[in-house]
Write a structure and sequence with these properties.
It comes from Apiosordaria backusii. With about 700 residues, the protein is α+β, with helices and mostly antiparallel strands. The protein has helices at about 10-15, 20-30, 70-80, 185-190, 245-250, 255-265, 320-325, 345-360, 440-450, 450-465, 470-480, 485-495, 545-555, 600-610, 610-625, 635-640, 685-695, 700-705, and strands spanning about 55-60, 60-65, 95-105, 120-130, 145-155, 155-165, 210, 215-220, 225-235, 270-280, 305-315, 340, 530-535, 560-565, 570, 580, 585, 595-600, 625-630, 655-660, 660-665. The protein is about 25% helix and about 15% strand. Strands 3, 4, 5, 6, 7, 8, 9, 10, 11 and 12 form a 10-stranded antiparallel β-sheet that branches. Strands 17-14-13-18-19-21-20 form a 7-stranded mixed β-sheet, sandwiched between helices. The chain binds CIS-heme D hydroxychlorin gamma-spirolactone 17R, 18S.
């Protein structure tokens, strides 16, 4: 894939070489390079003279029957016939990358796990992001939860956090999971009121949070236990696509998120997350009005603030998809000393499921696969099984044995010791009463949303329920919404049909919690870093405006994508310069970029004005609430394409910003290329344009009803 940006970070990357620590070095043993000296061979090592023709009978330049004898041809066919493994039963579609985890504050008050106490360490990681329901070949941008699974290759063994991009799950007990992998989603939602708190499409894997969701425990050196939830917060903020954009991208570029992650890492703009923990002392377990072991509940930030103690970044793309991203296998049961489980009934079920599923996907020796094997020593008496790789010298496969060479580890040597929890009770199929309260946090979530987010939730419900044919399903779902908020239920009822509820099934408690709304998301600084910005041109474009914008975009570590009326050379006005666009207007679409800039130039603008696709680009970007910048003659083009009286444009050399449409009629040398500091928010053209890009979307267009012309 093209890499557009020769940034300093990229140069640095090239100098430092691939990062990822011990794990990358460990994988080198299996990694081959394709070189000029290499020759084609069979899998058993014999060099081949041809890979094109099956061995056959030839007579007087006529070819006759093929010979089954040909071992080379048969090897190729056999491989082809058997190259698939079962895809993951859920989370089949995904993409991953390598990186590193660094702790900046020791959490020794709550755990003795070295990865969470030793600030001098750098731990290699592999992360796999995924959608949940689609198959391996499905689209990236569907409305679905996203998986966020991390493997920490620690010196004490592999630690996996198999999380999602939202903090809650839709069931409380693992026994119900298999029911949901099939149709009838909304019927399921109605019948499982616990799902009410979990009703989404991120702009990028790099712009979403991650949550361990389940409650784990931490044990410190004094033997004290705390309950813990793990939270990862992206440096770039949390941002979503709008629905129409997500729908179109699913057809135009089903690999959108996969490419986005790849491109950012190739360009040296490494995605980063802060690593946080929410901690509750064991003694406080029952002090809350919700059960802290219930995976359908969050731990509200105002009650239990997140403590950010480390960060991780992704800095290296995989070398080959199948052996790395496809064969990586996670287990919630894989924890390291200092970290433990809780009685969270979902977690307990998961601990059983993940190992089990790897057996059918990869076989019993799955932990020997290069991507899955730990970087610390592994020694035990497990033997045999399909595809066994390790060769352990010796004549015994049991312990204890007469040689007494390999012994269990003591606690001091780092051996895992279970927390000595006293457990007593009656065996029963039951759930605690606090687990039965399903609406309070759904209300908390709804109340914490901004008006924009509320509108999007309403529209999403309106869209999805409109696809349900059976009135029982959508009518009952509307009554369920009345458990959350009467206004919500009434608005959705009006959209999808059915009787609007007259009163709320329960009063809305009116409480809010911080950190739930994306638009009020804490901690993320405005930046254009890694954003794709299209520059639309045709022959005769204004070279000064074009190159100033290109330079400013690159300096901001964003990605300038030149989109032309053709993909061959385009010449600037007066022959002042030329460029070969990255893409042409038909090949690429506005949905694939975050913003567009159009430089002036009489001939260029004349050509773009006559081009229906160019006009559609501008309209569509406007409808998807993206920043649009135009200078010189392009101001009129933008005005014509948008054609809304409410949106005004520059009439002079002044910079004009109306609903995120930033225009300036006259460009003098230097007027565009001032130092761009979007955080300080200057008054220059680029500053205003970049400020709008950094805000992700111009929500005011939507609030004022200007956005629907897509
Ligand atoms: Fe999973 N889940 N899950 N899940 N899950 C799998 O394991 C399962 C749950 C999650 O990139 C499977 O290796 C059960 C919660 C992610 O390889 C399987 C239950 C959360 C991934 C499985 C849950 C997740 C999986 C399928 C509840 C968020 C992809 C393939 C009872 C906290 C990991 C595999 C990757 C994958 C079972 C619930 C996240 C079948 C039984 C809650 C990110 O074992």
């Amino acid at each position: 894939m093209a890499s557009y940006l020769p940034t300093m970070e990229k140069v640095q990357h090239a100098v430092l070489g691939p990062r990822g620590g011990d794990k990358v070095a460990d994988l080198q043993k299996e990694t081959k390079e394709m070189t000029d000296k290499a020759r084609l061979t069979t899998d058993y090592g014999v060099k081949q003279t041809s890979a094109d023709d099956w061995l056959r009978i030839v007579n007087n330049d006529k070819t006759g029957p093929m010979l089954l004898e040909d071992p080379f041809a048969r090897e190729r066919i056999h491989r082809f016939d058997h190259e698939r493994i079962p895809e993951r039963v859920v989370h089949a579609r995904g993409s991953g990358a390598f990186g590193k985890f660094k702790l900046f504050e020791s959490a020794e008050d709550v755990t003795f796990a070295p990865i969470l106490t030793d600030t001098s360490r750098e731990t290699p990681i592999f992360i796999r992001f995924s959608t949940v329901l689609g198959s391996r070949g499905s689209a990236d941008t569907v409305r679905d939860v996203r998986g966020f699974a991390i493997k920490f290759y620690t010196q004490e063994g592999n630690w996996d956090i198999v999380g999602n991009d939202i903090p809650v799950f839709f069931i409380q007990d693992a026994i119900k999971f298999p029911d949901t992998a099939h149709n009838n989603f909304w019927d399921f939602q109605f019948n499982h009121t616990e799902a009410t708190h979990m009703f989404m499409h991120p702009r990028s894997y790099r712009m979403m949070q991650g949550f361990g969701v389940n409650t784990f425990t931490l044990i410190n050196a004094k033997g004290e236990r705390h309950f813990v939830k793990f939270i990862f917060t992206p440096e770039l903020g949390v941002h979503s696509l709008v629905w129409d954009e997500a729908l179109k991208l699913a057809g135009q570029d089903p690999d959108f998120h996969r490419k986005d992650l790849w491109e950012a890492i190739e360009n040296g703009v490494f995605p980063k997350w802060k690593f946080g923990i929410q901690v509750i002392p064991e003694a406080d377990e029952h002090k809350f009005d919700f059960d802290i072991l219930d995976a359908t509940k969050i731990w509200p930030e105002d009650l239990i603030p997140t403590r950010y103690i480390g960060e991780f970044e992704l800095n290296r793309n995989p070398d080959e998809f199948f052996p790395q991203t496809e064969q990586v296998a996670f287990c919630t049961s894989h924890i390291v000393p200092g970290i433990g489980f809780s009685d969270d009934p979902l977690l307990q079920g998961r601990n059983f499921s993940y190992f089990d599923t790897q057996l059918s996907r990869l076989g019993i020796n799955w932990q020997e696969l290069p991507i899955n094997r730990p970087v610390c020593p592994v020694m035990n008496f497990n033997r045999d099984g399909a595809m066994r790789h390790t060769i352990t010298k010796g004549t015994v496969n049991y312990w204890p044995n007469r040689f007494e060479k390999v012994k269990p580890a003591t606690h001091e040597e780092g051996g895992y010791v279970e927390y000595a929890e006293k457990v007593a009770g009656i065996k029963a199929r039951a759930r605690s009463s606090k687990f039965k309260e399903h609406f309070s946090q759904a209300q908390l979530f709804w109340n914490s949303m901004s008006q924009i987010e509320k509108n999007h939730i309403i529209n999403a419900l309106g869209f999805e329920l409109d696809h349900c044919e059976d009135p029982v399903v959508y009518e009952r779902m509307v009554t369920r919404l009345a458990d959350i908020d009467l206004g919500l239920a009434q608005t959705v009822a009006e959209m999808v049909g059915g009787e609007a509820p007259k009163e709320a099934s329960r009063p809305n408690h009116g409480r809010k919690a911080p950190g739930l709304s994306q638009t009020e998301f804490p901690g993320s600084k405005p930046t254009i870093k890694s954003r794709r910005i299209a520059i639309l041109i045709a022959d005769g474009y204004d070279q000064v405006a074009y190159s100033a914008a290109y330079a400013a975009i690159s300096a901001g570590l964003a990605i300038p994508l030149v989109i032309g009326t053709k993909r061959s050379k385009i010449v600037a006005a007066g022959g002042a310069g030329s460029t070969t666009p990255h893409h042409h207007l038909e090949g690429f679409r506005s949905t694939m970029v975050d913003a567009i800039f159009i430089p002036g130039g009489i001939d260029s603008i004349r050509a773009l004005s006559k081009n229906g696709r160019a006009l559609h680009w501008i309209r569509e970007a406007f409808g998807h609430l993206k920043a649009i910048g135009a200078t010189g003659e392009a101001v009129d083009l933008v005005n014509k394409a948008i054609g809304l009286p409410a949106v005004s444009v520059s009439e002079s050399a002044e910079v004009h910003d109306s609903y995120g449409v930033v225009t300036m009629r006259e460009t003098k040398p230097g007027s565009l290329s001032e130092t761009v500091d979007i955080i300080k928010g200057g008054a220059g053209f680029m500053e205003k344009f970049f400020h709008n890009i950094a805000r992700h979307r111009c929500w005011a267009r939507e609030l004022d009803g200007l956005h629907s012309q897509v």
